[in-house]
Amino acid sequence: MEIQENIINKVAQSGLVTLDPAIFYVKGERVIYDIADNLFQGLILREKDFREFVKQHDWAQYTGKNVGIICSADAIVPAWAYMLLANRMAPYAAEVVFGDKDLLETVLFIKQIGKMDAEQYRDQRLVIKGCGDIDVPVSAYVELAKKLTPVVKSLMFGEPCSTVPLYKRKD
Known about the structure:
The chain is α/β, with parallel strands linked by helices and 171 residues long. The chain has 2 domains: 70 residues, no CATH class; 64 residues, no CATH class. It is 30% helix and 21% strand. The chain has 5 helices and 7 strands, in the order αββαβαβαβαββ. Strands 1-5-6-7 form a 4-stranded mixed beta sheet. A 3-stranded parallel beta sheet has the order 2-3-4, sandwiched between helices. Strand 3, helix 3 and strand 4 form a beta-alpha-beta unit. Helix 4 packs parallel to helix 5.
C-alpha cells in the first residue's frame, strides 16, 4: 500500500516578505586612522608638526576607502585636528567619520537604509532577517524598525519559519 502525502509549505502561503539587512552592507575597505600617531611623545598635538604632516601625507591612499578617525591615546586633541584630517581625506575616501570600526559600520548601514524607499513595503507582512553571513549592527535593525513601522501591516524579526513579532497595525 502506497501512501502519498501532500506537503504544504505554510511559509510560502503566509504572504510574508523577507528583508535581509545585509543588502545595506557597503562594500569597500575599512580603515581606522589613529591620530595618536601624530602626537608628540604620545601626549600632545603640536600644531606646527601636525600641519607639516598634513602637507606631506599622501591622502590619495584613502581613495575609495571608508575611514574612521580615532585617538587611542589618553590625550586632549583639539577638534580642529580631526576636522583637518577629514578635510584632507574627504576628496578621496568613500566615507569619513569620527569613530571606531563599529561606529563607521553603523554610519555606513544607516546611510544606506536612509536611501531605501519604505513605500515598497506598504501594507506588507514583513520579516527582517535575523542572521546571515554579514554582521549587521543592532543600530541598523533599530533604523529599519523605525523606518518601516509606519508603512507595514506587521513587522517581525527572525526567519519566516520562526519569527518574533514586533508590530502589528490595528485595522
